[in-house]
């Protein structure tokens, strides 16, 4: 009955008048409908900087990856294919990659060179850049040592042999290397532009040059970003989309209203809205490479106790979370989602974990044992749970309710913007935090390595030497089978032996897309979309 009322209320919300809202049409209606090959999307916040070295959110990365192109790019089937590289030569030991560049142009008409790649990659690695993405390059010889200031940049295995030949030397073979370099941090920037703009690079995207399918042609005062087709792009004859508009709007109900008013072409939907639209031909659902989980602040003495962490894990009803909060998700038994590759099948199929279950009686027992080990009569007065101010706020509210109901824990919610949440995490101002790490490429190691001691994304400061060693062995493994075995051990150690995190659910994305939008490619990992494939047909 409760769900029926909620669904009726949601349906009524869709009928609310758009009066009083700033709609897409008030921003740029004439240009929207005057161009048939125009796509209208939304982003949840203003993007202030467009720099592939420091971008670490999916929305800015998405725009950068559609205005730039790396040596490799993802095709419509999410496989790496040649981009700026026209040919690749790989050494017999699979540690030296030689890329031969095609005659590609920047949007100002100048040639894309191997020096552009060398300059950009080394800039991302430089300690002074403070790039959150530097670790992605650490499979390259001396990249990590250079990042820490231990060797000169000339020692890094990144070299422009000549204008059209680019060489990369790896520390050991990496089977997903070509997948890895489709990611945003590996895009080139024009070397002389980096030199010219220095610390202000990326702050005015209209003054930048681009080598991808699109260029950023303007940003309005309200934050709307406009992409135009790049006429200098080497493969522009196979790009039919002329314009893309990204409007700033972070309200799910408002976005759905805009979609129903034919003012935007795509919108993500959640919770009760999925029930209302599930039978629509415009409804889409994809498996992503993201897992929603709780990460602990390991500096919190109370949460350092393993039995306390285990109790919290057993006190959570994941099926209730999925049914009430994110009904297209899948309760998670581990960190690695089903989309991650194993040796021959998905990693999750090859290395299954028990289905997640709630056991309140056992949770209460472990909780009391943990309090005794800590010498406490009761739990702290409150624990701070960091969350986002988007739809995941409801997830945090439900977790707070369950932990109070099942363990008597008082959880204080701190729901904030993404940027503020990252700042609070980096400064350790939390006890628990909702995390939804999405893989940059389809290999389990990209998620498991975030729990190693010195990883930049290890905001909870988790540290275990044997775990670090297991990940190191996985990286240095001579065979895929051996590597997957080490990764299986690593995940089970985190989850079973140490309860270092609490998996909640594997994230599946649901969205509505206008039926006249074809080939809207949504990738499960790495960049969200490849807009170069989009085609808009007559309605």
UniProtKB/TrEMBL annotation:
Pfam family, one: SBP_bac_5
Subcellular location: Cell envelope
Signal peptide extent: 1-24
InterPro entries hit by this protein: Peptide/Ni-bd, SBP_5, SBP_5_dom
Domain Solute-binding protein family, residue spans: 80-454
Top-level taxonomic group: Bacteria
GO aspect biological process, one term: peptide transport
Keywords: Peptide transport, Protein transport, Signal, Transport
Main localization category: other
Family of this protein: Belongs to the bacterial solute-binding protein 5 family.
Stored PANTHER family: PERIPLASMIC BINDING COMPONENT OF ABC TRANSPORTER, PERIPLASMIC OLIGOPEPTIDE-BINDING PROTEIN-RELATED
Protein name per the record: Oligopeptide transport system substrate-binding protein
């Amino acid at each position: 009955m409760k769900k029926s009322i909620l669904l009726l209320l949601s349906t009524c919300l869709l009928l609310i008048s758009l009066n009083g809202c700033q709609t897409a049409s008030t921003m740029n209606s004439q240009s929207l409908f005057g161009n048939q090959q125009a796509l209208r999307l939304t982003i949840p916040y203003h993007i202030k900087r467009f720099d592939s070295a420091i971008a670490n959110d999916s929305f800015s990365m998405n725009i950068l990856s559609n205005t730039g192109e790396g040596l490799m790019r993802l095709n419509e089937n999410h496989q790496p294919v040649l981009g700026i590289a026209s040919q690749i030569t790989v050494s017999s030991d699979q540690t030296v990659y030689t890329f031969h560049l095609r005659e590609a142009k920047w949007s100002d008409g100048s040639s894309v060179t191997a020096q552009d790649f060398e300059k950009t990659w080394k800039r991302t690695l430089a300690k002074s850049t403070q790039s959150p993405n530097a670790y992605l390059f650490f499979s390259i010889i001396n990249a990590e040592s250079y990042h820490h200031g231990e060797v000169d940049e000339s020692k890094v295995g990144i070299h422009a042999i000549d204008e059209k030949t680019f060489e990369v030397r790896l520390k050991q073979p990496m089977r997903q290397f070509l997948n890895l370099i489709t990611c945003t941090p590996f895009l080139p920037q024009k070397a002389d532009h980096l030199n010219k703009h220095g610390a202000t690079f990326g702050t005015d995207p209209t003054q930048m040059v681009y080598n991808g399918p699109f260029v950023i042609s303007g940003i309005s005062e309200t934050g709307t970003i406009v992409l135009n087709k790049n006429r200098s792009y080497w493969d522009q004859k196979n790009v039919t989309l002329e314009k893309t508009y990204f409007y700033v709007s972070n309200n799910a109900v408002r976005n759905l209203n805009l979609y129903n008013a034919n003012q935007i072409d795509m919108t993500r939907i959640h919770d009760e809205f999925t029930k209302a639209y599930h039978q629509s031909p415009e409804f889409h659902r994809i498996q992503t490479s993201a897992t929603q989980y709780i990460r602990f602040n390991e500096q919190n003495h109370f949460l350092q106790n393993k039995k306390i962490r285990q109790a919290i894990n057993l006190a959570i009803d994941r099926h209730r979370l999925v049914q009430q909060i994110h009904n297209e998700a899948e309760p998670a038994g581990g960190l690695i989602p089903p989309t991650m590759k194993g040796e021959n099948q998905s990693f999750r199929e090859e290395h299954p974990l028990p289905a997640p279950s709630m056991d309140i009686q056992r949770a209460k027992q472990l909780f009391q044992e943990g309090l005794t080990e800590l010498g406490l009569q009761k739990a702290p007065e409150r624990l701070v749970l960091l969350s986002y101010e988007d739809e995941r706020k409801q997830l945090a509210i439900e977790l707070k309710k369950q932990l109070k109901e099942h363990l008597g824990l008082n959880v204080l919610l701190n729901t904030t913007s993404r940027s503020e949440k990252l700042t609070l995490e980096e400064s350790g101002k939390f006890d628990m935090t909702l995390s939804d790490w999405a893989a940059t490429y389809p290999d389990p190691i990209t998620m498991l390595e975030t729990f190693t001691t010195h990883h930049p994304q290890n905001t909870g400061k988790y540290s275990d030497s044997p775990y670090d060693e297991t990940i190191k062995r996985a990286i240095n493994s001579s065979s895929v089978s051996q590597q997957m075995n080490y990764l299986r051990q690593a995940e089970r150690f985190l989850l079973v032996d140490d309860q270092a995190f609490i998996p909640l659910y594997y994230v599946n994305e649901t969205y509505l897309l206008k039926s006249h939008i074809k080939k809207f490619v949504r990738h499960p990992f790495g960049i969200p979309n490849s807009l170069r494939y989009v085609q808009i047909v007559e309605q």
